[in-house]
């Protein structure tokens, strides 16, 4: 993985929009936009992303490993591994919270969302010249339904840039693994901490249809595998309810 080139902004409408603009202008793979706050942060399916100052919001331009579904796992894992490192350094082992990955690309701690990932790409003919991976992590603040690092380590002095450095270090390692060995090793890491694995789940796809079944696996293409009676269903995209 090439060294990251980081552009810092005090406020951005959306770091993904900024990164996509740079990608269109020919920015190199590994270009990062990080903002102290976002005025119009966006999550998956156009949902507003809570973006006050004090949390981490960044987007990275990637021009390798251009498969959106599996790349989202690398981004989520980079956050999850970073959070586990921070928790293990500051919390007694018996009190470390439970971290899980919720398909397709959320990170949960004690069943509450602490981080989300949004991937956006450009399709040019039959190819994808770039992907922008946007990441938000709650450090100090969170909406009522979510959680943050400060909920578990109230006295921790952790800036968004300090957390960014840790996440990017882990992301670089994961992308190197991806480059050398494909998605399988990342899939194994993700499945070890998969939210609702072997449980009954509901997945709503972009066409508004809700599919139900037992979540049994993740395919090598990043799809979720559901078992319902004798039937097996693979879904490439959707939201787990």
Automatic annotation (TrEMBL):
The record's listing under InterPro entries reads:
aa-tRNA-synth_II/BPL/LPL, Biotin_CoA_COase_ligase, BPL_LPL_catalytic
Q: Which CDD domains match?
A: BPL
SUPFAM superfamilies according to UniProt: Class II aaRS and biotin synthetases
Which Pfam family is an annotated match for this chain, by its short name?
A: BPL_LplA_LipB
Protein name per UniProt = Biotin--[acetyl-CoA-carboxylase] ligase
Q: Which GO terms describe its molecular function?
A: biotin--[biotin carboxyl-carrier protein] ligase activity
Keywords recorded for this protein, A-Z = Ligase
Q: Which organism is it from?
A: Anaplasma phagocytophilum str. ApWI1
Q: Top-level EC class, please?
A: ligase
User: Domain named BPL/LPL catalytic: which ranges?
Assistant: 1-179
